[in-house]
Design goal:
The complex is a heterodimer of chains A (350) and B (219). Chain A is mainly beta and 350 residues long. Chain A has a domain of 80 residues. Chain A is 5% helix and 38% strand. In chain A, the strands form seven sheets. Chain A has a seven-stranded antiparallel beta sheet, with no helix packed on it. Chain A is globular, with a radius of gyration of 21 Å. Chain B is built from four helices and twelve strands. The radius of gyration of chain B is 19 Å and the shape is globular. The N terminus of chain B is likely disordered. In chain B, strand 10 and strand 11 form a beta hairpin. In chain B, 23% of the residues lie in helices and 27% in strands. Chain B has one domain. In chain B, strands 3, 4, 6, 7, 9 and 12 form a six-stranded antiparallel beta sheet that branches. A three-stranded mixed beta sheet of chain B has the order 5-1-8. The chains are: A mainly beta (350), B alpha+beta (219). Chains A and B meet through strand 22 and strand 23 of A and strand 5 of B.
Chain lengths: 350, 219
């Protein structure tokens, strides 16, 4: 993992990119770089194991498409009176973008863009962000990661193709419903070839299947060999605000550098549920090589003292346990309310 | 006894063989507050045996056959075993008497245990055959089910403190005699295992009583 850090850090290039044509949009963007997403194969597992699970994290962000300052907000509408965008520029079934607030009380919050108005100089978002916006709140717009962008339009990444029952599976959890959407690269049979979901053998989802950098992705690989998938993108700067709902959440570390640990993750200050191993919210990290999960929680009572603990010991301090980049992990919210995980940027830049 | 040792060894071997596969994981023990003690209220010493698994019996059948360890064992599917003191939940040495903490990995699906009820079976000895007391505990809490291997994540966390202090949770044993090593929490207690001869005498006595009753009714 340290080599990842070195590679990624060495390749970060701070670029001043002109995004768009307006001078109002010409700004310094995030540094860029790449990392390798490790997808575990079945090699190393006992005979009979037909698949291996990897929790992948999209620790590079898509490049910034637009950034500026907001003038106002009302309901689900954000207004930038200097905007130069065109109608529907940032929305559509295969043209998915999201906005991130960079400053103010909502810094790090993201929301899917559902409408773009040139004349109104406004964008409509899936969530009501108006309470976080004042005149001058800065924002960025990025395109979501898509299957085509992550794994190649024709599966150039080398994931195992096939049918829905034989191909490597990419699973994305809908937190609110608890239902997974399963994607795969289809190579034969009725419905043609290409990226598909298990909902349809014929609908191309290469651009409509999309993800944000904080989305955790599970890959269930049916091939024996491990696979490295290169991910090229921007280094996300600034804090990140991640919604954590009741129940199961699969969250990615969106930062490709630094060491995000339980202690510096901001989880405690954000409202992670404390308690015992049976009552506290749980953070679970899979070791893909062994298939074993390590479960962490914040202990606030009982034998063994208080602090970050794993279920391996009631007394060993786990505040330095890492949440590695390039991976995702489970947050099991047991407390009967949601919260926003304010995750600080775990490295210094510039 | 030899049969049980073979069974235990097979369980350990199964544990090792799946340690690197994607099976299920169960965190279990007495590691939060309440420990487990003998019938007199003394926390069990380090090294006493604890088992986790599932009985292919109803709770009523388990309670009715609490004195017949061989019968219970024949109907028990063991997921893992451990010993009092492991994990040192309350620190080293005698401080962890009555406590243990284990993270066990096995295949629920191979054992056909997925989504079945979890039971703790605790003995006042390092072996089943050497025990004179035992405790059998479960809980109605939803986490006391063995996870399906294919679940994401295939894990559950349980603790003795979740066991209800009624017949819903304590199938053999009791609660409240003596204090745990944390100095405040009451112990879950084991109860004596009747000697086979005692069981036989009691059974014989019951049969005689029934026969006598029948004779009285006829006359």
């Amino acid at each position: 993992m340290r080599s990842f850090t070195s590679i990624a850090a060495a390749l970060f290039v701070a670029l001043s990119l002109a995004v768009g044509s307006s001078s109002a949009q010409t700004v310094a963007t995030d540094p860029v770089g790449f990392l390798t997403l490790n997808v575990k194969g079945t090699t190393g597992f006992p005979g009979g194991t037909t698949s291996a699970l990897s929790f992948v994290g999209l620790s590079m962000a898509p490049l910034v498409a637009y950034q500026a300052s907001l003038s106002s907000a009302s309901g689900n509408t954000l207004v930038d009176s200097s905007a130069t965008w065109t109608d529907n520029q940032f929305n559509g079934a295969t043209n998915n973008y999201y906005v991130e607030l960079l400053t103010g009380t909502g810094a790090g919050i993201t929301s899917q863009i559902t409408g773009t108005s040139a004349s109104g100089k406004s964008i409509t978002t899936a969530d009501n962000l108006s309470s976080f916006v004042t005149a001058g709140t800065t924002y960025r717009i990025r395109k979501n990661w898509t299957l085509a962008a992550l794994f190649g339009p024709n599966n150039e990444s080398g994931l195992g193709g096939g049918t829905s029952t034989t191909a490597d599976e990419i699973l994305v959890l809908n937190q609110s419903t608890g239902v997974y959407t399963t994607y795969y690269y289809k190579t034969s049979g009725v419905g043609g070839t290409g990226w598909r979901s298990t909902a349809s053998t014929s609908t191309d989802v290469s651009l409509s299947g999309f993800f944000k950098p904080t989305d955790g992705i599970l890959i269930r690989r049916h091939q024996s060999a491990d696979l490295g998938v290169p991910l090229v993108g921007a280094v996300k700067l600034g804090q990140t605000s991640i919604p954590i709902g009741i129940g199961l959440n699969i969250v990615s570390n969106p930062y490709p550098s630094g060491t995000l640990t339980l202690g510096n993750s901001g989880l405690l200050g954000s409202g992670i549920g404390q308690g015992t191993s049976t009552t506290a919210d749980l953070i679970q990290v899979l070791n893909p090589a062994t298939g074993i999960y390590t479960t962490y929680y914040y202990k606030n009572s009982g034998v063994g003292g208080t602090g970050w603990r794993s279920t391996n010991s009631t007394s060993v301090d786990e505040s330095n346990a890492a949440l590695p980049f390039g991976t995702s992990f489970i947050v099991q919210r047991k407390v009967n309310s949601s919260f926003r995980w304010i995750m600080p940027q775990p490295f210094t830049y510039p | 006894m030899k049969q049980f040792k073979s069974f235990l060894l097979a369980g350990v071997c199964a544990f090792v063989s799946v340690a690197t596969s994607q099976g299920s994981q169960v965190t279990w023990g007495a590691a939060q507050s309440n420990g487990v003690g003998d019938a007199s209220g003394n926390p069990l010493p380090t090294g006493d045996l604890v088992l986790i698994g599932h009985f292919n019996l109803t709770n009523a059948q388990i309670m009715a056959n609490g004195g017949n360890t061989a019968f219970l064992m024949a109907n028990f599917v063991q997921y893992a075993s451990d010993f009092i003191g492991d994990g040192q939940p309350n620190g080293p040495g005698t401080a962890s008497d009555g406590y243990w903490l284990a993270n066990s990995i096995n295949s629920s699906n191979v054992l056909s245990l997925q989504n079945t009820q979890i039971y703790y079976w605790v003995f006042n000895s390092t072996t089943v055959g050497g025990a004179t007391q035992q405790g059998i505990y479960t809980s109605t809490a939803s986490n006391w089910k063995f996870p399906d291997d294919t679940a994401v994540p295939p894990t559950t966390i349980t603790d003795l403190s979740e066991v209800q202090h009624t017949v819903a949770g304590i199938l053999w044993g009791s609660f409240g005699t003596g204090i745990s090593r944390d100095g405040t929490s009451p112990l879950y207690n084991l109860a004596p295992i009747p000697e086979p001869s005692t069981v036989g005498l009691v059974t014989f006595g019951l049969i005689c009583a029934a026969a006598a009753g029948r004779r009285v009714r006829r006359s």
